[in-house]
Amino acid sequence: MTSSRLSKGGRIDRSRSIRFLFDGKAYSGHPGDTLASALLANGITLFGRSFKYHRPRGVFAAGSDEPNALVTVLSGDVREPNVRATELEIFDGLVTRSQNRFPSLEHDFLAVNQLAGPLFSAGFYYKTFMGPAIGPLRGTRFWMFCEKFIRRAAGLGKAGTSPDPERYERMNAFCDILVVGSGPGGLIAAEAAAATGARVIIAEERPLAGGSLLASGEMIDGRNPAVWAREKAEALASLPNVRFLTRTSVWGYYDGNVLTAVEHVSDYKPNRTKGLARQRHWVIRTGRVILATGAFERPMVFPGNDRPGVMLADAMRRYAIEYGVATGSAVTLFTNNDSAYDAARALSIGGVNVVAIVDVRPDISGTCRDIASVAGAELLLGHAVTATHAGKTLSSITVQHFNAETGRVSGAPREIRTDSLGVSGGWSPAIHLASQAGGKPEWDEDLQAFLPPEPNQNWVMTGSAAGYMDTISVMSDAATKGSAKSRLVLPAVEAPMLDSSPAPVFEIEPAIKSQKAFVDFQHDVTADDIRLAYREGFHSVEHLKRYTTLGMATDQGKTSNVPGLAIMADVRGISIPQAGTTRFRPPFTPVSLGALAAERHGDLRPHRLTPMHDWHLANGAKTYEAGLWHRPMIYSSHGETIEQAYTREAKAVRDSVGIVDVSTLGKIDIQGPDAAEFLDRVYTNMFSTLPVGKARYGLMLREDGIAFDDGTTWRLGETQFLMTTTTANAGPVMQHLEYYLDCVWPELRVHLTSVTDVWAGSAVSGPKARAVLEGCVTGTKVDNDTLPFMGIVRGKIADVPVMICRLSFSGELAYEVYCGAGYGVHIWEALLAAGKPFAILPYGLEALGTLRIEKGHVTGAEIDGRTTAHDLHLDWMLSKKKPFIGSAMVHREGLKNENRLSLVGLISLDNQSINGGSHIVTDPRPREPADSFGHVTAACYSPALGKYIALALVKHGTSMIGNRAFATDLLRDKHCAVEIVSHHMFDAEGSRMHG
Amino acid sequence: MAEPRSPLGKAFVAGDHGNHAAGIGVTLRERKNLSIIQITAWADSIPAVLTAIGSATGLVLQNKPGLGRVAGEKSVFGFAPGRYFVVSATPDLETRLRSAISAELGTMVDLTHGRTVIRIGGPRSEWVISKLFAIDFSEHAFPVAYGRATLHHDIHTNIQRIDDETFDLYVFRTFARSFWLTLGHAAEEVGYRVE
Amino acid sequence: MIIRCPYCGPRDVIEFTYQGDATRRRPDPASSDQDAWNSYIYDRTNPGGSHREFWLHGGGCRQHLVITRDMTTHAISSVAFARSIVAGESS
């Protein structure tokens, strides 16, 4: 038994108990506890096994910098791995599990990995798996063989496979000033900023405001600093221009002063009210940022420094002051700076027994000596810890003489009995966000730390993040950073005078090492790994990081960054600033994918529904998603296959009449005196000659001469057109047109408006289509004279105004009937009623596809961004009378080469269906590898021909007509003998639609 | 003539939803039977178009980005250079605008069927729509009667502020049901009423 | 990233679509000079500093903008409507 709850102290509510599970065992804690503090209070010091070596690990820190104590939180079938026990607030019913151990935390088989230490050293993967062939095993093969064993052995927690039922949401916020952190610097800066009337957001990572004040032994205005902080925070939160967010970690700093944060809205609540998110992803756009992010204490690197019971001195202090937990019954401290004395002072005030302070420095100030003596701790100056010893938990440390100038260890080892060692290697300002923002950090010799860079966006840094290490200077700096004209009266601070500069000692390296000395605890990177990387030629910090994975774990090197750089600088014989540092990248703390996805998952991604959508569903439509649209695929009668259904539907169109929902077609209103001229420029064919009341099929190219989109455009008036586009290209075509009007031809007076959603469209096709219209249209005739092919009339159906254009995609006599979208169902039903005598059938996309394949009409499957008008036999549409977009490039030699793929039809010779995407080959099972000379773009069963057919793009297409080949689908091992035919497979003369 | 059908369909469920036990944070309703006309002025005729809109509707605007006016069911606002929505519950709006705005001044498109107008009101409306749109809804950044064009993921939306806690959201009709569900989902936290 | 649209004000980059190099000039439509067209369609400079680009504010006013942006820092030094800039330059 080592750690335990102190009889008094801490901001926990001792009057209430909380029950939770860790590795199946029940424990209790109090409101205000984290999982780490509660387990420590229960005497638990072993929290997990390490990444590579499966070494036992305990809690090392008390906040977001924790590298070791990662747990998996279970909630029903949902598991969230790698949650820091130091930040996880306990609640009744919380279920947690330790990670990376097999079969249990206490007895871990894979701890034998430690014996294989050299095998897992830096560069292990590269060396083992990318080497030359060894016998039959090539490096990558060997990897494939080993992978599952390694994946099992190495790693952190396992992600769950169940869907996460929790709610996450995004919140957009705007403010004048964002203050990150609410320690003494953040609070004062926010107060000064708020006093100017500016809109202020304060984001605090922890549940309580106060930062370092929460565990300080100082007095502010004669009061407990935590109480002072709480009252200050409450006063700020009550201001109308301030939003105070707690449990909110700002994790990203992006261009334009856009910052991202995650608020833990209800993670810590056992019962949540309806609609409350678990986490809220804030995107904060701010005028100015005040980074009061504090500083992280650094560990020292020495043999055995990862043993459970060894932790940061500041963490030890926080467990005592904030949670009323003693991390041991006989505590020792090991330091290179004064802050450990401040910790010792707080610990002894809190009732923790400090037995010794080991300090690498030969001499220290009187203040520090006094603190040691008041605490009753033995002072070992000019000493260092050179080993740690343990049964299950830390039992003692070895101490030897140490020369801070030379770094040499000497003298006889002495053993000191201790069950908890607090380590302080100095402090690293939390410059992560500033570094993300893009600046290059600057090394400060005095603090032995990287300080924030020169701002390149509108931000300032204050508090210990800016290198101010005592509360008084933190507050006075923060007031001016909050507002240059601040008139805040700062509180009186009583604090011991301590020196904030550490001795430049990062590693204790005794001549004989019996234990590993860790730099990056989470990724199991040792000091020797860094030296090995150096010997193997990885000198730059960027290479070092990638070769050893130093700083690449979920803690992003918060504790390991500077010690790692220091060791590399030392072996290279250069200074730390010469070695440089890597740039920090988002996220500062891990962010759940749920929070990033926010509401955009499951059924809340946007769906686009046509006005007739509900009708389709109510009438047996099976739909599929085409982009964001939901469209009927078939209308199934029971027991039918998809093929049977679309065959039935397509046949109805050829034999009598069918109706299909074409509301998804892109529709663009084009108006203005230059509208016709504009269309002449964007289409390959002429539109200025199109009479009012007529439509024309048009083809657009890209500037490079490749086909872009096709559709019909209707001239509704002298200066007004309605353009239709393919469903998929509605957005891109609009953007294309807007680009030319804005950026190329600003002189044209043309206005564009997307009217896709304004009109519901129903296409009535088949020999009886005209009869159907005659049965319901009023106000106009629809005979061949009034409404010829490509003609447009206006009239009414069931008293609703409609616009009817006679055009055909199916090859039959066909009409598109457009009405206001609100009347879509009304018109659709009226057309069905009028079609009843002719057994009209609604048809879906499959039948639509079948009809157009039979006709050889192209869609996006053929206009695929690689084909030209020539390839698709649409070169007759390329006007020679005028330039148009693509006209200068479309006649390039390479685009007319006979070798190009061009459009043909295929007819199955063996009555087998042809798979879409099949390749066209001469021999489906060649002895030697042979080239494919084309591919199938669309395939179906053709009721009109009684055969399986397809469209294909085939090399030398037209001259191949009459030849036989195979459509071969190697993935599904399906090979179909086909005859290559003209793409016009049905009614080549077009007599049916002109009838 | 038949009543135009709302795209919200079964997704529209009148009554209280979400965490309403703690009070109603927002109220949602669909504004129906509006006439929504988009007017776009040629670059050199914006002031003349504004005058014409003023004479046809009685709502006079100055030429300033996003400026709008609201008078009962009638409203007008700009959301792009020279482009305005003129909205009214009176069916003769289009005729009156057509006679006021000649081809020399600009063009008109009737978007009545193309947009669904959702009104969100209540003390938490700013909070709820801030979940969906990345624009600043505070009153000094977005004053009453002003218009905005923005988007929620793929859903392009025009927004007009009606008063300090009420907004009209104009969404494309085919997205309306999806958007309505998203909006209701976002509002569950504060409790919402559908009228 | 935030882009300050001259009509809509500061907006998130998600509302905008990059529409390419704004320094290139489209050859005379009637020209058949293949080199000029090739250069217009395929050649792009990638300066390590200030550059002019077209961006479409598709999630707002749907206007194309000409943005002058530093390619190394992403700092935007000017934003204007493409229509007025292009019209001004071609007149």
From TrEMBL, chain A:
What terms describe the molecular function in GO for this protein? sarcosine oxidase activity
Q: Which InterPro entries is this protein grouped with? A: 2Fe-2S-bd_N, BFD-like_2Fe2S-bd_dom_sf, FAD/NAD-bd_sf, FAD/NAD-binding_dom, GcvT/YgfZ/DmdA, GcvT/YgfZ_C, GcvT_C, GCVT_N
Alphabetized UniProt keyword annotations = Oxidoreductase
Ranges for domain SoxA A3: 515-599
Question: Any idea where the GCVT N-terminal domain is?
Answer: 612-882
**Aminomethyltransferase C-terminal domain boundaries:** 903-987
In terms of superkingdom, the source organism counts as Bacteria
Q: Which SUPFAM superfamilies match?
A: Aminomethyltransferase beta-barrel domain, FAD/NAD(P)-binding domain, Folate-binding domain
**FAD/NAD(P)-binding domain sequence ranges:** 176-438
Any Gene Ontology biological process:
tetrahydrofolate metabolic process
What family does this belong to?
Belongs to the GcvT family.
Question: Which NCBIfam families does the entry mention?
Answer: soxA (TIGR01372)
Q: What is this protein called?
A: Sarcosine oxidase subunit alpha family protein
| Taxonomic source organism | Phyllobacterium endophyticum
TrEMBL record, chain B:
The protein's matches in Gene3D superfamilies, at most eight in alphabetical order, are given as: Heterotetrameric sarcosine oxidase (3.30.70.1520), Probable tRNA modification gtpase trme, domain 1 (3.30.1360.120)
Give the matching InterPro entries: SoxG (IPR007375), TrmE/GcvT-like (IPR027266)
In this record, what's one Pfam family?
SoxG
**What is the name listed in the Swiss-Prot or TrEMBL entry for this protein?**
Sarcosine oxidase subunit gamma
Automatic annotation (TrEMBL), chain C:
Q: Which GO terms describe its molecular function?
A: sarcosine oxidase activity
Gene Ontology biological process terms, A to Z: tetrahydrofolate metabolic process
Which Gene3D superfamilies does this UniProt record tie to the protein? Folate-binding superfamily
Q: Which superkingdom, per the lineage?
A: Bacteria
What is the official name of this protein in its record?
Sarcosine oxidase subunit delta
